[in-house]
Amino acid sequence: MKVPFILVIDQSTSGTKALIFDSSGDILCRCDRAHEQKISSEGWVSHDPMEIYRNTLAAVADAVKGSGIDPADISGVGISNQRETALVWGQDGKPLTDAVVWQCVRGEEICAGLADHGEEIRSRTGLPLSPYFSAAKIAWILKHSEGAREKKLCAGTINSWLVFCLTGNFKTDYSNASRTQLLNLTSLDWDKRVCDLFKIDPAMLGEICDSNALYGHTDFEGLLPKPVPIRAVMGDSHAALYGQGCLKKGMGKATYGTGSSVMVNIGEAPLFCRNVVTSLAWGIDGRVNYVLEGNINYTGAVIKWLVEDLGLIRSPGEAGPLAAQANPADTTFLVPAFSGLGAPYWAPHARASFCGMTRSTHRAELVKAAEESIAFQITDCVKAIQDESGLVLSELRADGGAARDEFLMHFQSDMLNLPLSVPSQEELSATGVAYLAGITLGVYSVDIFSRLPRRTFIPSMDAEIREKRYRLWQDAVRRVMVPLH
Questions:
Q1: Cα(183)–Cα(189) distance, integer angstroms
Q2: Which region holds residue 365: left if phi is over 0, alpha if psi is between -120 and 50, else beta?
Q3: CA gap 105, 2 in Å, rounded
Q4: Residues 335-377: tens digit of each pLDDT
Q5: I need a labelling partner for 61 at 20 to 30 A (CA). Which of 267, 356, 367, 423 fits?
Q6: Which of 128, 72, 65, 125 is nearest to 340 (CA)?
Q7: Strands 183-184 and 217-218
C-alpha cells in the first residue's frame, strides 16, 4: 500500500527549507539552503529571487534524498513564505530587480507622498500606510526600473514567484494578498483605488485564491517522477497560526523569528483598529477568517546581533542561560529599534538604545536586556490587540526558534500574566501548510492538530514587580521615540 508524504517549502528571510512530512504529520527530514542578505550602503535589504528559486530546487533534492522515501509517494506540496517581500518580473520569468525585503524601508518616500490618503488606505486594506508592506516596495521597483511601464509584468510576493516558477501559473492566496496593502478587506479583491494611488496596474497582480486551492502541478524540474499538486499556500505567520490549531475566534500565537508576528484569530468579520493591523488569516473552502496582528521588526535578530556584531555570546543558544545568571535587580533595558519600531508604535524614525545601565552592568545584564526586549515587544502587541478588540486571551501559543529558550518563555509568560503553550514541533509555519495540504488531499484528518505535544509555562512573577518592569520598559520606549538631531 502506498504511504503518502507531504513536501513543504518554507521560504524564510534567511533561507529556504524543504521538509518531508509523513502520514502521521511528523517531520521525516528537513534540509536548508541559506541565501545572501544584500544590504546596500543606504541600509536597503534585498534578496536575489533567482537564488531563492535555485535554493528551493536544491533543498527539495536534498530532502527527497535525505528522507530515503520513494519520491513517487509524495502526494502534494505546501508553500509557506516570508511575507511583504516583493518583486516584479516579466512573462519570461526574469526579475526586473532583486526582491525588496520586508525589513527594507526604501519605499518611505513613496508613502510620504501618499500621507494625505493614509486613513483611506487603512480603511480599505486594514493596514497603516507604511513602507513595511508590499505596495510601496512594488511602486519603488516600478519607479526605478527603466522601461518598466512599457512591459507586461507580474508583481507579487515570494509565494507568487515560486508558484510561477514551479507551475507557470500566476496566483496568490488570501493571506499573502492581505499583506500587500493592495487588497480590499471587504470585497476580497484587489482595490483599484489603492492600486491607482500607488500607480500599480491591478492587471500586474496575481489571481487571488483560497489557501488550499489548486495552484498547479510541479515535478521540480524533473526531481520528481511525475508532477504533484501544490495544495496549500500561506504567509509564514498565517501558516504558523493554522499549524498551532488557532482555528477559533480568540485564539492567538506569537512567532519568534528574525522579527515576530503576534496574531489573534477574530473570526469571519473584519475589525479595523488603530495600533494593530487587520489581515486575512486564510481562505479555506470558500470561507475566510480574519486576524489582528502586531508585527515586530527585531526579535530573534536581536540575539543574532549579540552574536555576530557585538560578540557577547558565541551562539543564540547561550543567550538564555547567560541571561539567567544576570543580576535580576539590574535596570538595563534595550529597545531594539534598529529600523524603527513596528506595532503598536509605528515609529520608523525611532532608534535603538540601551538605557538604565550602571557600573555593575556587565555582559550577562546586557544579554538579559536583549532577551527581555523580545518579551516586552510581544507584550506590547498582545495588550494592544486585547485592548482594541475586547477579546481576552486565555493563553498564548508560541513558536519559532526562540521558543526553545526557557528563560525567554518563562519571562514572556510572566510579563503577559498568561499561560504560554509551546509545541514540541518547532517548524510551525511548515507544519501549517503541511496540515492544510494534507487535509485537503485526504492524507490527514482534522484531528491532526490534537496530536501535537505541548509544554506550558505558567506565570509566577509578583504582580507589583511585573507592573514596575513593564512601566520601566515603556519609559525606555518613550526615550527612543524622540528624534535625534
A1: 6
A2: alpha
A3: 49
A4: 999 988 888 998 878 999 999 999 999 999 999 999 999 999 9
A5: 423
A6: 128
A7: unpaired
